[in-house]
Amino acid sequence: MKIIHVTNYFRDTHNHIGGAEQACYRTIRMLLDKGHHVSAVTTQFDSPENKNKHQIGIYDTKVYENFLPAILAKFVEVLKWYALQRDPLASIGFKKILKNEKPDIVHFHNFQFLTFSLIYEAYKKNIPTCISIYDYWLFCPKAQLLKPDNTFCHEAHGLHCIYCLPDQFSFIQKILLLFRKKIFDQTMSLIDRFVVLSEHSAGVLKGYGIPKKKISIVPLTLPIEYQDAVKFKHLQLAEKNILFVGWLNDRKGVHIAIEAIPWILQREPDVKLYIIGGRAKFANDYEKKFEDFIHKNALQDNIIFLGHQPPETVRQYLQNTDVLILPEQYENMSPLIMIEAMMLGKPVVASNLGGIPEYIDNGKTGFLVDPYSPKAFAEKILLLLLNKQLRNNIGNHAKQSIMARNSSHKVWDATIACYNDLTGKNKFIKKEEK
Asked: Model pTM?
């Protein structure tokens, strides 16, 4: 089978790599290992010298932003993010790629900056499409489906979204929100399959109106590259330490991790929080708030910002940390960093939200707490920091649990079943069985 994967950024060729990009890469690795022909389409490379590092064809496609001054490029990104999901340059480039590759399936991941133009090109050529859902951007301009009072938003996108969005570009936002739902719904009707990571996320899509028959639940692929023969050095972290990994924005909840530290320091004054994460777009006001909190509470020596780091470095810190804090602030489906930590036998203290409770048995394979309570996070983290045996027990149970739940054969069976449905092969298989 020939599959094209479409993603904003790709591992090694781009600097901007998060959980969605890692999930895309691991799906591709799994398909390659099973003998399928795979290629990837992404935005203009940051590091073109790395495009031959993987055993696949990687195409970079030009978009409007590549030819604009930085300030205009940022404005176009905003327009694309909110509603104007057409880019003729990306469309022309993708059309050539489809002609060259002749894929059986196009699998979309996070691809906002390449735009819906690519979906239309696949549709015009009658190529089956699926899209992996890692957040709720298709239904919400903040990708969270979360109201200002932290309750779940059942309304999805519309003019009311203006109350959740940053003040920047507010006039433009209002105009775009008038058209967003119609544009998105029209395009989503062309997608053949929506791939989600948890039962919870499947329920969210059904609630929006996506037919059940168009939804497939496929767990995240375990870190295939962790099997590679690479030795990772031991890091000299603080004797008692906590790790946060994620973009520095409100939905990832780094502010909760930071606000938990004063509570922890009351018992353990030498604890350090290590934060791995790149700056998010349009999050300046949010960053200022948690930076002010750090200075006001004199936490500079206890919180170490490491910036955005490559996957290899993230793995090193995961292997050496005592506890991973996962303070997600929205109905996340199942964060990739949680899967990685559990696979490495590390205890996780996580928000009791979204699809996360499907993965964590509270008190046995990790701890689930009130997402909006720094004190609740602090209490469970202290339990783990002060009791090595408890840390080891929970870490071991977490590893056993995730290796069974997200086993390679389960992920593969779910993935190939989805692809076979799209190409009609499952119908053929059923007839053969009869």
From this structure: 0.86
